[in-house]
Design goal:
By secondary structure, the protein is an alpha/beta fold. The protein contains 5 helices and 5 strands, in the order E-H-E-H-E-H-E-H-E-H. The protein has a 5-stranded parallel β-sheet. The longest helix has 18 residues. The model has no long low-confidence stretch (mean pLDDT about 85).
Length: about 160
């Protein structure tokens, strides 16, 4: 399939070495693994700090937004204290729009990371696509929030 990195490995009974010995790189979840569990495994290349912390997930509070940022800082400080050279990564959700979630702290969340990713809710959740025009970052709404027609289905 061409997938070579497992983002957000969590405790499921599988030893990380089992995964990395097969050529798959891993971003271990900081909330799931300790430094001693990860050890010096060269296949563990980074730490997943959080997933959608700005929206109240990954153990972060839903609000106020400064509280989510404080939790994110706590997570980053924990991993930074490992001094293991691995990069810090976080995935973000609707906060990237800077509307309802994290309107004043989103830049701070991103700047804490070496690598950031974001979900594309604007293309999968019509109610989110509707708030894109209100976003101060200049995104354009998707062309259509309707699912494509099913082959052979009548449109009458």
């Amino acid at each position: 399939m061409g997938v070579n990195t497992y983002m957000g490995a969590e405790h499921d009974g599988t030893n990380l070495k089992f995964v990395t010995d097969r050529g798959v790189f891993v971003l271990a979840q900081q909330e799931e693994f300790t430094l001693s569990e990860v050890g010096n495994n060269p296949g563990v290349v980074g730490w997943l700090i959080s997933d959608e912390c700005e929206m109240g997930y990954s153990g972060c509070p839903e609000g106020p937004e400064e509280d989510s940022l404080a939790k994110q800082i706590e997570y980053v400080n924990k991993v930074t204290s490992f001094a293991d050279g691995r990069f810090k990564q976080a995935n973000f959700g609707n906060g990237i729009l800077r509307t309802f979630w994290a309107p004043t702290t989103m830049d701070d969340h991103v700047q804490l990371m070496d690598v950031a990713s974001a979900d594309k809710y604007t293309y999968t959740s019509p109610h989110v696509g509707e708030i894109v025009p209100d976003s101060p970052i200049g995104l354009r709404p998707p062309r259509s929030t309707r699912p494509p027609p099913t082959a052979g289905r009548s449109t009458r």
